[in-house]
Amino acid sequence: MMEILLVINPVSGDINKSDFLDFAKRAMSKSKIDYHLYKTTGDKDCEELDQLIDIYSPEKVIIAGGDGTLNMFLKPLIKHNVKVGFIPMGSANGMAVELDLTDSIEDLLIKFITSKKTKSLDVLSINDSHLLLHLGDIGANANLVANYDKDESRGMFTYARHFWSEFKNLKSFEFDIKTDQKEYERKGVMLAICNGKKFGTGIPLNSVGKMDDGLFEFVVVKAIDFSDLLKGALSKFDDEYEIENLETIQAKTATVKLKQPKLLQIDGEVVEEFTEFHIKVLSKALRFIQ
Ligand SMILES: Nc1ncnc2c1ncn2[C@@H]1O[C@H](COP(=O)(O)OP(=O)(O)OP(=O)(O)O)[C@@H](O)[C@H]1O
């Protein structure tokens, strides 16, 4: 059995990964680790990874890329029940905050190579076809991500430009949520689906989420004013802070119905428009290396 399959997204976050790759190759050769390297191409990567795991049966798959890169591989990672390490090298890296991956990328790699400990994380299944590890939403943020994706320029300035234009033009929309417990009729500018606590930019959107509790949370954002956003951004370091105008609804399963079709964004990637979707928890489905 092979020890490690290292997956690298060469384009994520506009970061050059050749130094990291050199470091990884040296570290693994020095430790006499049997490894295989896979660089993503942006085409059929998920199927490729599924086949590589079939062929090599690695004990661990370590993925270096952005949140979207990790999300893209959830299906085969869960199917093969392999141990997973994630090295955040994307532009926003919300997952890194959530998973507390604060060490340097080199230290993280060494930890993932050497550690035998794992923690199993829940994954959310949407309409039995899309998997969500961290956070999804419809409304303001999904539009923001879609417009940012279409823009040829990248980076924080471009993101900020889209951020302001999106949040200036917020329109609420109506939706019904039916959970395993209760039914809700709501209106808001954003409906977030959270497996964990943190929001992409560090805003503590949901304070009750745990990634291994068999539950997920909806956060209904009823209206955002700029002072709330500012407070949210400034409270990065203060987990106690919660933005007003938020309602949290916890569930094991749920169906969401929208009056009009809306874009759904999952782990930083825009999926498609939905008027109805169903969410369930795949309890402790992903074995994450600690
Ligand atoms: N070699 C490649 N060339 C172009 N695109 C790729 C390549 N490999 C992977 N991708 C694409 O990269 C995306 C995932 O990027 P990811 O979200 O991890 O990085 P990111 O830097 O956070 O992205 P963004 O800049 O959009 O926030 C997927 O859509 C995938 O198809």
Helical/strand content category = alpha+beta
- Largest beta sheet, briefly? 14 strands, mixed
Write down the CATH topology of the largest domain: Tumour Suppressor Smad4
- Helical segment count: 9
- Using the alpha-carbon principal axes, give the shape: globular
CATH class of the largest domain equals Mainly Beta
The count of DSSP E runs of length 2 or more, i.e. the number of strands, is 14
**Which hetero compounds are present in the coordinates?**
adenosine-5'-triphosphate
N→C terminal distance: 21 Å
Number of domains: 2
Pfam families: DAGK_cat (PF00781), YegS_C (PF19279)
Domain DAGKc: 1-130
Protein name: Lipid kinase, YegS/Rv2252/BmrU family
InterPro entries: ATP-NAD_kinase_N, Diacylglycerol_kinase_cat_dom, Lipid_Phosphate_FormReg, NAD/diacylglycerol_kinase_sf, YegS/DAGK_C
How would you portray this structure in words?
By secondary structure, the chain is an alpha+beta fold. The chain folds into 2 domains: 4-116, Probable inorganic polyphosphate/atp-NAD kinase, domain 1 (Rossmann fold); 130-281, Tumour Suppressor Smad4. 30% of the residues lie in helices and 36% in strands. It contains 9 helices and 14 strands. Strands 1, 2, 3, 4, 5, 6, 7, 8, 9, 10, 11, 12, 13 and 14 form a 14-stranded mixed beta sheet that branches. Helix 1 packs parallel to helix 6 (105-114) and helix 7 (140-150) crosses helix 8 (155-168). The two termini are 21 Å apart. Bound molecules: adenosine-5'-triphosphate. Adenosine-5'-triphosphate binds next to helix 3. Residues 1-130 form the DAGKc domain. One of its GO terms (molecular function) is kinase activity. This is Lipid kinase, YegS/Rv2252/BmrU family. Keywords: ATP-binding, Kinase, Nucleotide-binding, Transferase.
